[in-house]
Amino acid sequence: MSIEQEVEALKNIPLFANIDPSRLKLMAFASERLTFKEGKELFHQGDAGDAAYIFIEGEADVIVDTDDGPLVVATFGKNDFVGEIAILCDVPRTATIKAKSELVTLKITKELFFNMVMDFPEMGVEVMRVLAHRIDHTTSQLTEARNALAEKTS
Length: 154
Prior knowledge:
Layout: H1 3-11, H2 21-30, E1 32-36, E2 41-43, E3 51-57, E4 60-66, E5 69-76, E6 81-82, H3 84-89, E7 96-99, E8 103-109, H4 110-119, H5 121-153
Antiparallel strand pairs: 1-8, 2-7, 3-6, 3-8, 4-5, 4-7
């Protein structure tokens, strides 16, 4: 994949849709293109966060450790990004990300990510929107799980 193709891929991600193509070219050039084979982990829950990943092709499962073992809580694919929570909050990774199929990503380092957010405040707003959507989705899932459990125990 060429830099131009990576820039086109970045333009399709809402987070980067309003950023000047020349800046996206710089970002694509500064990021690392990585391919993960099916079953390989991008990172593991509890690891230190050093980068976020943008999915160019393929899918990956989001897995959290539970008392009953690993639990897949979501699947992300093309144009999604993961890993931003650990680099935004300086906390350990909140989940494991494992390639569900061959996965092509752009690895965005913490430094590059923060530089982009500082240079483009609209990107920061978009990050907040994505995170708010994820919180809303998680809250809905927890409510459904609680209601299902309440029905089982009644």
